[in-house]
Design brief:
126 residues; alpha+beta; six-stranded mixed β-sheet; 26% helix
């Protein structure tokens, strides 16, 4: 998460109205336990990409599932959003399961410059 902060900070400075589409803190029992957010505003097709991370000591407690469910609902509350996408490395089984529990469907594969091959999961507006 620390690596992303300078980039997110610059994006928020450039377009303060888009700040809510970037990084959000995940808190549980009064503690910061992770982050979740989108990679900017919805694109022309109404898609946003979501990413999430929970610190290891707070994993396996349903926190990521609850956060992804909430943020997906938040995104769909915006009329411009028709699809939320997550790209997840195939070795990150817990994150794949979180997406599946929230109702995301695997649509294929892609390449990410930072992590290599990723599975593409999507959830369409209900």
């Amino acid at each position: 998460m620390e690596d992303a902060l300078p980039f997110v900070t610059e994006q928020v400075r450039t377009d303060p109205d888009a700040a809510v589409w970037w990084m959000w803190a995940i808190a549980a029992e009064g503690a910061f336990v992770g982050s979740i957010g989108f990679a900017g505003l919805p694109d022309r097709d109404g898609a946003v990409q979501v990413g999430y991370s929970v610190y290891p000591e707070h994993q396996r407690q349903g926190i990521a599932t609850e956060a992804l469910q909430a943020m997906t609902g938040w995104a769909f509350a915006h009329p411009a959003v028709r699809l939320v996408r997550a790209t997840i490395p195939p070795w990150n089984l817990p994150s794949l399961r979180v997406a599946e529990r929230v109702g995301y469907v695997r649509r294929g594969r892609a390449h990410d410059d930072e992590v290599g091959e990723v599975h593409v999961y999507e959830k369409e507006r209900p």
